[in-house]
Hints:
By secondary structure, this protein is of the alpha+beta class. It has two domains: 16-31 and 206-235, no CATH class; 46-204, no CATH class. Helix content is 40%, strand content 19%. The chain is built from eight helices and five strands. The chain has helices at residues 7-15, 17-25, 43-59, 67-85, 140-157, 183-187, 190-202, 212-215, and strands at residues 89-97, 111-122, 125-132, 163-170, 175-182. It has a five-stranded mixed β-sheet with strand order 1-2-3-4-5, with helices on both faces.
Amino acid sequence: MAHSWSFSRLGDFEKCKKYFWLKHEQKIPEPERALRPGQTEHANDRGSRIHDNCELYVRGDHDALCAEADKHFGAKIDLLRIMYEDGMVELEGNWGHDEDWEIAEWSAAWLRLKLDVLVNVSPTEAIVIDYKSGKKWGNEVKHAQQLQLYALCTFLRNPHLEVVDAELWYLDVNETTRQTFTRQQALMFKRSFDKRGTAVTMCTTWPPSANKFSCQWCLYGPEHSGHCAEGVRKK
Length: 235
């Protein structure tokens, strides 16, 4: 039984319970992926490097913004740096909530949420920003739900807010997705996320979702580590 969930864990769980169990409950490392032709680093390593650089730059602990972030979003990130100096920006928040959606310490939280940027525009308005280093196409539904969860938790943690703008900055493709929520709109998502989060943390059986979509990139399958014998093989 899982003790906590996050948006990324929720995605793993709903894709395949056995994959979730192997990765998060048994903590079995995935086998190393081979780099594709032309790659110099894996996508997750690249994403972490870009996120870390953006945080350090906005915080003023690094003098140069990495090329990936500077290419399309350099001016916007420069503005975040100025706003951070003015006390308007919070960075890399580790937010925790308990089963009643009350604020909780990260180590004991039921829901854990990592936030890239929170901009306090005014006492009643805030902007939540998440950097994306990957593609937008094909992830629209998942990313829209991520914005809904960010907005919900922002309102729960800040009772004075009336409006939250939730944004995804797609650094590689120079695109921004933005959704504006009122408090009433965001709180409507609570019931659905509560049900989905409870399903993760109360689960005790871990059947595989063996299909070509779930198994396509799984490194636990029979053609990789072999921890999941039920995985669909490539034909």
